[in-house]
Prior knowledge:
By secondary structure, this protein is mainly beta. Helices cover 8% and strands 41% of the residues. It has an 8-stranded mixed sheet. Strands 9-10-12-17-16 form a 5-stranded antiparallel sheet. Strands 1-2-5-4 form a 4-stranded antiparallel sheet, with no helix packed on it.
Amino acid sequence: MLPHLYLSLTVLAALASTLVDADINVVCGKDSVRISWRISPQLVPYAARLFLGSCMPSRLKVMPDGEGEAQFNYQLADCKFKKLIKGKRIIYQNELTYRPQAKPKPAAFVYPIECIYKRPEVWVPQFMNPGSGVSDGRGGLVFHMALLNEQLTAVASTNVIPLGSFMPLWAAVDQKSHQPLLLLMEECVAATTPVLQPGSHVYPIISNKGCLLESKKANAMFLPRYHSSAIILYLQSFKLGLGEEIYIHCKLVAWDPEVLDESKKACHYVKESGRWELLDDPFQSNLCSCCDSTCTSRSKRGVEGERHSWSYQTVLGPLIIVDRSDMKTHNSSSSSLL
């Protein structure tokens, strides 16, 4: 029996060599993708071993000459597509793979799939009002925080979030008669309780005076600002309290936009370059070099200006992160997010 098994696996692996010059056609729709993949007659019997992310072909068409065409017609919300926002582009990424053996064995053939869209010009959230999230007044200022929808156009309609999807967390400060202020997230943690206690189980997200830790250990970033008084943290959902209520606790700081130092900054880690980058001025990214150690204020003007800064401890939630298989159950009983 074993010799036959080894022979079968050898044949399947050998078929991967026929995919080197694969004939693959990708058509990106508004919110879906259509892919046709021409395969050799030898590979047709093994079409069930072809995948788009986690999805098998939606149809297999066998040609008169014996060749096959595996078709994948799926929404971009399916098949474990990864959504990235880079500057003015929204990018969906996935892979076509041929897997002779089941996971965790590696794929014998991998072909990257990418759909790129222009981010809408008008994407400024139209909800600058106290009812859109947690808010309160400090020093004549009003702070807000809310979970946005996927399009970044409004407050999310549900607090139930699929595991692995992104959570755009928006924070802003109403400046009223104040001079222009820069809003920063100095520290953020996720917890399973709305009030932090000494023994609370917390998941650090931002620490060290504005360093986005989650951007180095996972997928997260600060999106480009549409105004200095607002900031959007693009955070991938995590497993803390899976299926239960979690809360995002943040310390928000309104600050002089002309004075940035190691203690007043917004830094995220860019994996492509392998370095920390300052959101508001990449040319001053040296201010982020302390993110892997301890960040302290080096600016005398910054120390003198502390009395002109305002901070506020805010809590956003409850949020419920669930496996995609549990989405229907939770959506039917989800609560509104305040």
